[in-house]
User: Fold this.
Amino acid sequence: MSVIFKRVSVRKYEAKPVEEEKVREMIQAGCAAPSAGNQQPWEFYIVRNQSILEKLSKVHQYSGFVKDADLAIVPCYRIEGLWAPQYAHIDMAACTENILLKATELGLGCTWIGIAPEEDRMKTVKEILNLPKNLAPFCLIPTGYPAESRPQENRYEKNRIHLVE
Assistant:
């Protein structure tokens, strides 16, 4: 799992399309995430339409680069019919991390842009994508071939580890 130590947030992309097979593999990785009681609340919207990417780039103060990505994956979660809805965000976080790691393994770059639980952002994305009532957007994952490269920052801090005996 060395990919864990290679993943970085990528905000600059080459003008090169991401292959459908790689998109499918990223979604499969997301679906392999654990979820509370196996409720699997996720559904995915793949956005390649440039005018929609442009709109999504204005949803968040830090999402301007979305318009430059080849695509954006928008993981959404069902808000009805879940036996443990209070865990949907946790499920979606695990799903999103799997997508980010798979993208890195495939030589792609992406970034996790938070949408949920911010109601204004959620409402805007829901309107842009014309999502059905029973779905809520969790985040944006702009994706493409990276036009930048850098090592991952070491975030390990021994003083944050506490042994309980």
Notes: The domain at 2-144 is CATH 3.40.109.10 (NADH Oxidase). The mean pLDDT is 96.
